């Protein structure tokens, strides 16, 4: 038995007659989170977590019809019991749990197993079938703990301040930027790009408290930026705008920075392996906990990871989807305007 079909439009629940994170317009779309590769414009009706609603309105348009659910509340859709549970990926991210006649399916979307201090912490779920990402589905990707990661970042900022340099972080406008703001609160004055501030306003409208940050523009006085923190989207990397920040030291925050070669290739001053995705251990621990009889592996190292799961006795199948990754775009130095995380 399965509650899911993988179709040309996306992941479909035929009993419930709805799609989960479809990549083509449909009548009823259940959304795991507000990143652009999972929440696409054009569907008639959306269902998402209540924290995601104001972000989705910014990204999909103010007239978009969006129903919301809090975590753990069940909605019956054509006999399917649907509930949303924390995915820990970004603010408002959710795993979609489906139950029908005692059979349970979980579509996890993107997820992160360590508490980042700003997203609702990940909740592992038991199920019969589980859909997992595999963005970092290789043994080399094992993250440092949250405290150690930010201690390393703070030390880098202090060294920059001692040399009169401004610390510039390249981070996606939704998710990574807010995580950096939270982790670096009180270290120095924080400036953010307008694309980040626009989403900060949407997040605050959902009664979520974010650290104070000022909006940065190319006209922000040089004296105000000295020894400060500036968070910018990847689209500005290598542009004349970023060069207007005096004495800037640039760091990319991405899981791909686990590999030193990526740091050198980007020609920046530092790289920190800050990822909003589960690492190798997080993926395996989660899948083992689910107890799922079948695991479907989407976007990332799908072939390698599904092969490994089968080798250790977990029935797994690679599934081709149109989901991308903020991490992939950072590694490729893609423009934010065409990346999945717009």
SSE inventory with pairings:
Layout: E1 5-6, E2 11-13, E3 18-20, E4 28-30, E5 45-49, H1 53-60, E6 66-69, E7 74-77, E8 80-86, E9 94-100, E10 103-107, E11 129-134, H2 146-162, E12 166-170, H3 176-183, E13 190-192, H4 194-204, E14 214-215, H5 222-225, E15 229-232, H6 240-243, E16 248-253, H7 260-266, E17 270-272, H8 280-290, E18 294-300, H9 302-311, E19 316-318, H10 326-332
Parallel strand pairs: 3-4, 4-5, 5-6, 10-11, 11-18, 12-15, 12-16, 13-14, 13-15, 16-17, 18-19
Antiparallel strand pairs: 1-2, 2-3, 7-8, 8-9, 9-10
Describe this structure in words.
- With 342 residues, the chain is an alpha/beta fold.
- It has helices at residues 53-60, 146-162, 176-183, 194-204, 222-225, 240-243, 260-266, 280-290, 302-311, 326-332; strands at residues 5-6, 11-13, 18-20, 28-30, 45-49, 66-69, 74-77, 80-86, 94-100, 103-107, 129-134, 166-170, 190-192, 214-215, 229-232, 248-253, 270-272, 294-300, 316-318.
- The chain folds into two domains: 5-140 and 276-326, Ribonuclease Z/Hydroxyacylglutathione hydrolase-like (Metallo-beta-lactamase, Chain A, 4-Layer Sandwich), CATH 3.60.15; 146-272, Rossmann fold.
- Helices cover 25% and strands 24% of the residues.
- A seven-stranded mixed β-sheet has the order 7-8-9-10-11-18-19, covered by helices on one side. The chain has a six-stranded mixed β-sheet with strand order 1-2-3-4-5-6, covered by helices on one side. Strands 14-13-15-12-16-17 form a six-stranded parallel β-sheet, with helices on both faces.
- It is globular and about 65 Å long.
- Residues 328-342 have low confidence and may be disordered.
- InterPro entries: MBL, RibonucZ/Hydroxyglut_hydro, Xnuc_lig_assoc.
